[in-house]
Each structure stands twice: as structure tokens, then as C-alpha cells.
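User: Could you go from structure to sequence for me? I need the amino acid at each position, not a summary. C-alpha cells:
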């Protein structure tokens, strides 16, 4: 039960009350298990979610040597789903409870090559890429693949510029809004990336809602 006493368009408040049962739900994707808190974002169509994640992992084309950035990672589900095929996964999420979920889910699934950081992706990513910031326990020497899974509003231009400046070779963009996806793809193309393809995934049949997974590659001609 969520309590929201604020006026305005914000859907949920800061207070959650457990009426019955446990304060988290447990979900399974393939062989993996996840505990999800009310504050964490999670796809509710489990069958289609696995198809969505499989497509994201396919686009990432990991061979075990990559460092993967999972930006707007929520409970860490996409990054953890890819972790077995990567050298390292580093996730960033602004909701503190979701970050706690992500790190707990790494432990639940025995994944030791994933780290999750609390903060805004557009603020934390430049710090991760800076070796001079001693406040962080994790630094990124190189990043090979970025998974972007922003809210409906899409990514801030500053984040896309930071991703491009890091020289990341492949971007997997998971979007719940085709309009902001198209806008951000246009920005990334101007920053030196080439749009390869996108695959829609019908999460809510007979509605207008659709998730899309897009693949972009660094344009070698630049």
C-alpha cells in the first residue's frame, strides 16, 4: 500500500506499507531469480520480458571480455541477465531501494562480476569514467557496451554525449516510448553512431504500449 499525500502528477509517494506477506515479490526469468521491491521498476509480463531480455543480450553480442554499462538499471535485471557473458557489469540507478535490490539479486544468483551504484546516470557515469574521483570504489577503465533503459522521457542529451565520448562500440537501447527512442537515436547518430535495427516487443497485447530494443554501433568511418 503506497501513501502519497503530495499534490501534483507524481503517482507514488515515499511511504510503502506491507499489508500482508513479504515486502518483496520473487520472479523468475529462465534460470534466474529476482526479488523486487515496490520501488523498483520491473516488467509485469514475464513471458515477453524474457523475449525482450534475450533480444537485448543478442544485440550486446558479448564474448566474455566486455565491460557492460547498465544505465537506468532498476533492479539490475537486464545487466544480471547479461553478466554470465560479460567480464564486468556496472549498473547505475537513481532509486536507492532498486540498487539494493540489484546488489541482492546478484548475490541470489551467485553473480560476482556485477556492481550497482546509486545516483543519476548522467551524473555518475562521468565520475565512473574519471580515475581522479577517489570517492567511488568502482572506476571504469574502458566500456565496450552500454545498455540504456530509461523511463518514458528517454535519456538526457548529456548522458548520450558522455556515452559517445567514452568510445563505447555498441549501444543497446531498451525503450518504452518510440517517440523518445527516435529522438535519442537521432542524437546518437549525430554523435558518431549508426542505427542498425530495432525490434518491437508487444508487452501488453491489444493496447498501444510497446517496448522496443534498438542496436546502434560506433561508426568506424569517424
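Assistant: Here is the amino acid at each position, in order:
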Amino acid at each position: 500500500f503506497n501513501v502519497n499525500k503530495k499534490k501534483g502528477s507524481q503517482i507514488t509517494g515515499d511511504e510503502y506499507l506491507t499489508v500482508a506477506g513479504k515486502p518483496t515479490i520473487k520472479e523468475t526469468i529462465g534460470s534466474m531469480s529476482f526479488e523486487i521491491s515496490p520501488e523498483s521498476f520491473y516488467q509485469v509480463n514475464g513471458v515477453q520480458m524474457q523475449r525482450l531480455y534475450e533480444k537485448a543480450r543478442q544485440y550486446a553480442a558479448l564474448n566474455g571480455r566486455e565491460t557492460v554499462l547498465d544505465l537506468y538499471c532498476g533492479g539490475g535485471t537486464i545487466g544480471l541477465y547479461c553478466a554470465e557473458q560479460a567480464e564486468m557489469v556496472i549498473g547505475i540507478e537513481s532509486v536507492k531501494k532498486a540498487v539494493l535490490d540489484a546488489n541482492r539479486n546478484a548475490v541470489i544468483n551467485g553473480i560476482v562480476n556485477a556492481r550497482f551504484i546509486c545516483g543519476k546516470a548522467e551524473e555518475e557515469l562521468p565520475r565512473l569514467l574519471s580515475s581522479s574521483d577517489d570517492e567511488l570504489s568502482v572506476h571504469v577503465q574502458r566500456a565496450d557496451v552500454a545498455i540504456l533503459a530509461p523511463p518514458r522521457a528517454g535519456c538526457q542529451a548529456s548522458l548520450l554525449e558522455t556515452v559517445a565520448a567514452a568510445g563505447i562500440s555498441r549501444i543497446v537501447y531498451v525503450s518504452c516510448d518510440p517517440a523518445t527512442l527516435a529522438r535519442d537515436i537521432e542524437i546518437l547518430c549525430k554523435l558518431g553512431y549508426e542505427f542498425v535495427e530495432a525490434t518491437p516487443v508487444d508487452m501488453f497485447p491489444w493496447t498501444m504500449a510497446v517496448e522496443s530494443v534498438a542496436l546502434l554501433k560506433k561508426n568506424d568511418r569517424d
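One structural detail worth keeping in mind: Residues 46-60 form the longest helix (15 residues).
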